[in-house]
Every structure is written in C-alpha cells, then in structure tokens.
Amino acid sequence: MTDTDAYRRAIANFTTGVTVVTTEIHGVWAGMTASAVASVSLDPTLLLVCISNRLPTHRALEQGRRFAVNVLGEGQEAIARRFATPADDKFEGVRLDPAHDLPVLADAVAWFICDLHERFPGGDHSIFIGEVKECDAKAGAKPLVYFRSEFGKIEDPDAYMARDLAAWDMTL
Fold first, then answer.
1. Which of 33, 39, 92, 137 could form a disulfide with 84 if both were Cys (CB 3.0 to 4.6 A apart)?
2. What is the CATH number of the domain that holds 26?
3. Three-state SS at 113
C-alpha cells in the first residue's frame, strides 16, 4: 500500500487548474475549490469533478443534480482560498453572473453548467460526471494554476525570455 504522505508529495508535482464548483439546492448555494476536474468526452460533452464525500457541496450536488464549474484566472487566489475554507457564506462579496440559475462566478475565465450524468465511488471522494449544457470562456484570459501546494500562473515565453535576457545583461 502506498504511503499517504508520499502520495501527497508526488501528486503535488502534477500541475492543475483551479476551479470553483458551485451548485444550488432548495435555494441554498454551495461551493468548493476543486483541482480534480477533467474533460471526459466530446460526444456527449462530459466533464468530471471529484468531490470529498464529507463536504456539504457533495450532498448538495447529489440532491440538486446540477452544478457549475468556474475556472479561476490569474489573481483570483483569494476566491480559491475562500471556497476552500469552511464558512457560513462563501458567496458573500463574490460577483455572480445573474444570467444563470446556478451560481456562476462573474469573473471566471471560463465556466461550464452541467446536469449530473453519472456518479461513481472513488474512495473518500465521489466522481461526478456532468453533461455540459452551457459553457463559455473569456478570450485572452489566463488561468490560475496550482503546483506543489502553491498558486501560480502561466508565463508568456517571450516575456520570460526578455526578462531573463534583461537580468543577464545587468550582470555584464
């Protein structure tokens, strides 16, 4: 059996995007930060999210059977932390897009609204597969990434090289 700490250290080297999964049940919103999100299929259009069995969002998603995946962008670390921390109202002060009946974050760089297609057990998590009913993305926006337990960003290779060359020139 794999050592849990060794697994955590190793999986931390897998860079992921950062999302907030949101849902609604009986007029109450629930949401959580998630990095275990992936595309599953184009026909039908499916994506998956993995959610801990002990979280309120898990129960709400099971009952509501609809959810939104909000892809966070550069500079949205505070939103990621807010939805990763237990709180009475995680949505307080967060701008939502009023065009949707589910809580969709107005500042997300991309979003997907899904109907629950299937749910599978996955140890202490459930694997929720959603059929994408609506989605959109902001052109030119860059995602927030997560690597080795830290948030980061994707750098433009040309800007990176220019900065590196400028630093090198200063040493001459």
1. 33
2. 2.30.110.10
3. strand
Residue with tokens 């849990």: 4
pLDDT at 170 over 80: no
DSSP-assigned letter for residue 99: T
Dist CA 160 CA 144 (whole Å): 17
d(CA 57, CA 52): 9
Q: pLDDT tens digits for 54-86?
A: 999 999 999 999 999 999 999 999 999 999 999
Q: Residue type for 17, please?
A: G
Q: Classify residue 22 by its DSSP letter.
A: E
The CA-to-CA distance between both ends of the chain, in Å, stands at 53
Most distant CA pair in the chain: distance in Å? 66
Cα-based distances in Å from 133 to 49, 51, 99? 15, 20, 14
The pair of structure tokens assigned to 149 is 């337990």
pTM: 0.88
Number of structural domains the chain divides into: 1
Q: Which domain holds residue 165?
A: 4-170
Look up residue 104 and give its two tokens: 């969709």
